[in-house]
Design brief:
Length: 346
Amino acid sequence: MQSDAATTPISRIIWDLTYACPLRCVHCYSESGRRPARTLDRADMLRVVDTIVGCHPERISFAGGEPLLVRWWDEAARILTSHGIPVTVFVSGWLMNETLAGKLADSVTAVTVSVDGPDAATHDAVRGRRGSFARAMRALDQLDRVKRERGRADGPCFELGMDYTMTRTGQRDLGDFVERVSSRFGSLDYIRIGAAMPVGLAQEERFVRDELLDDRELDRLLASGPGLQRRARNEVEVTVEDVRCFLPSSEMSGETATIAQIEPDGALRAFAIYEAKVGNVLEEPIAELWQRALAWRQDPFVLAQTGSVTSLSEWARATRQLDRRYGSAADRARIARRGNAGAATD
Ligand code: SF4
């Protein structure tokens, strides 16, 4: 986790707008739905947006939790895009309706719907709520329809994508799935398939044992890329990502070093994905917090945990150490309660 504190800019921002979520995914990086939402009111949202505009990131992602639960998500998106900052929204599809699909078309650059299984049984098991696959498909139908309508009227609209977080459970029937969804949703632009990273709930030993892909499975996933692309219809781009390039000790992890992650209440993480916080952008200038974040990455304990990581399971161990040491008291209490996450609910 090397960085140069004097020169490393913020290239991209992930803003988790809320930790509220109707789903209970077994791999959730933010453990949403199982911690306080900490959503800002509109006045503080405007202050955070001002700060982000001042950073001039190349792009911003609205994540969570479920961003569409937040009353002001579209206002924040419109302000950011009006300043030339592209906004991608990551959604589960659970809440989607025609009105929200239209608002997304009016306000954001890209919408990505998360789908983690080729069928309802698999997806719902990973996402922890029955009916979530049906809702994700219905959301894609609605977004696809809005995008086609806007296209016919020569109006601007979002890029439409699907994110597939690969667990062991979700490994089967991918070719058929790619062919089916790319045929059904004609305006889909991309399908991104990436293995679950060992952060958040996916760092825990049970997940690592049962669901985290090992090197052989990762190799097989990578090798499947060209075949999956051949199965795609309507010029949908299919990418398969080797998350090993983001291992903390890898050279590519430098790319992630320029990503700033803001928690719902404005807290800035020391490094995207870990629970360590360096302050709040509502209370201190982000430039100062960013220097603190870069310094955190040179902390001897941090370097000792991350320096020799060569596999996802070792990365999981490092994440467990870092989150338990640097998380807030509330984070550490929540982490200590883990164990029942992921049970399917009606
Ligand atoms: S991964 Fe699942 S539980 Fe976590 S925020 Fe996304 S939809 Fe919600």
